[in-house]
Design brief:
Shape: globular
CATH superfamily: P-loop containing nucleotide triphosphate hydrolases
CATH topology: Rossmann fold
Structural class: alpha/beta
Distance between the termini: 42 Å
Order of helices and strands: EEEHEEHEHHHEHEHEEHEE
CATH architecture: 3-Layer(aba) Sandwich
Radius of gyration: 18 Å
Length: 257
Amino acid sequence: MSVIELHNVSLFRNNNIVLQSIDLTIPGGEWTSIVGPNGAGKSTLVQALAGLLPYEGSIQIGGVELRSIEIKARAQHIAWLEQATSVPDSLDFGLRVYDIAMLGRLPHQNWLSIPSKEDCGVVEHAMRQTDVWDLRERFFNQLSGGERQRVLLARLFAAQTGILLMDEPIGNLDPPHQADWLKWQTALSGQGKTSITVLHEIQFALEAENLILLGKKGVHHQGKSDDPLTHQALIDLFDGRIELTKLGNRWVALARQ
């Protein structure tokens, strides 16, 4: 349940600054959602936390600098789910669904070793959990967008890491599978996993314990998702064009015309 700390972090894309002088403390063992308008740097931030982008400043996990952690050790502790539109072409050609889910076990295997009985059991469990076990012999490029997303989620869960980073995890999912994802995410929180998600669906983001709100000038607000101050900051972030209302035990966001 390592705390993730960012100190004076700046991030760039194509030599253009995206986020500058960011200071954040992300609790360990909890679910934190990142919300913000298009272009605020949400995906850039989680990619940096995954160790996929260079950064200036300091990103520490449990007090250890991220860039100092060897790649395989990092992959054993941090699992990454990219946006479905960012899936490399290599995953879209000639690989079976089962093979892609098994990629989640690579950090736990020795070089050129074959999957162990444990690996196979973990992957089967993850695929059944995400409702893709019956698709295991099909090729990835034969699947619909929602089916692909569930396969990538199976790969993520099969990694069995303490930290899970997800960029638009419910993209392409139909409403029943979105509800399933929320159930899976709640279970991860119950297991003491640290989850960080980028979500455009604010009603799902509000289910997290913590929210990080990114605006055009960096961090707009960080706080508990049920805090009235966080709710007001969220409304202000979108220039008052949303309103929050409670439906049963859940908060939902409605667009204002």
